[in-house]
Amino acid sequence: MRITKAKLVKTVYNKSQYQDYNLPEIAIVGRSNAGKSSMINKLCNNGKLARVSSEPGKTRSINFFSINEGLMLVDLPGYGFAKRSAGERNSWQQLVEGYFTVTERLRHLFLLCDIRHDPSVGDLQMVEYLDFYRIPYTLVATKADKLAKSKRKVQAQKVAKVIGTDDVIPFSAVDGFGMEEVLKRIESVLDAETAFYGAKISVDK
């Protein structure tokens, strides 16, 4: 799969603003410094598509990106930044859980964790959310460029073991390691959507 068209179409600050575009949705979530924006920009070959915040935890909205006019990539706000107040953390919970409850199009989610560190309490809580809402997900072990290539898959598997999954992709937004695997996973989700609903999904392969 190749992403040839990508644009930000909507920014949502509460679940009442959610709009159904009649397209399958794939969400991305992780700690505030896990590299969500960098991953989106790398996949879409557009360094300015998703804004990379200079202050972790600053973004408190859900951003919807139209991909190849056949998919909505949903950028969920980051979690786990210690300097945020309890009220702001509660707002994050309401926003993200609100999205999980209102959307009928979410087909898959990429959970991002820094490959160099053990999953945080927030990461494990997110897994509980995903299990509760029965959302299928793939663990993406980001910042793989910080490790030697020979160590990346082994370390990613260690992170995955703590999370409790075998489905993990080591990824780097710097050197593109793992990008093809992520794109193939997106393609497989779209293929399943087409097979189930009989609708033609517009993607470039």
Helices and strands in order, then pairings?
Elements: E1 6-12, E2 25-30, H1 36-43, E3 62-67, E4 71-75, H2 86-102, E5 106-114, H3 121-132, E6 137-142, H4 149-163, E7 168-170, H5 179-197
Parallel strand pairs: 2-4, 2-5, 5-6, 6-7
Antiparallel strand pairs: 1-3, 3-4
Short description:
It contains five helices and seven strands, in the order E-E-H-E-E-H-E-H-E-H-E-H.
Task: Write up what this structure looks like.
The chain contains 5 helices and 7 strands. By secondary structure, it is of the alpha/beta class. The protein is globular. It starts with 5 loop residues before the first strand and ends in an 8-residue tail after the last helix. The model has no long low-confidence stretch (mean pLDDT about 90).
Q: What is the CA-atom radius of gyration, in angstroms?
A: 16 Å
Q: What summary fits the major beta sheet?
A: 7 strands, mixed
What is the overall shape?
globular
Strand order of the largest sheet: 1-3-4-2-5-6-7
* Portion in strands: 15-25%
Query: Structural class from helices and strands?
Result: alpha/beta
How far the N terminus sits from the C terminus, by CA atoms, comes to 4 Å
Count of alpha/pi helices: 5
SSE sequence, one letter per element: EEHEEHEHEHEH
Report the average pLDDT across residues.
90
| Helix coverage percent | 25-40%
Number of DSSP strands? 7
In terms of per-residue confidence, which ranges show pLDDT below 50 for 5 or more consecutive residues?
Answer: none
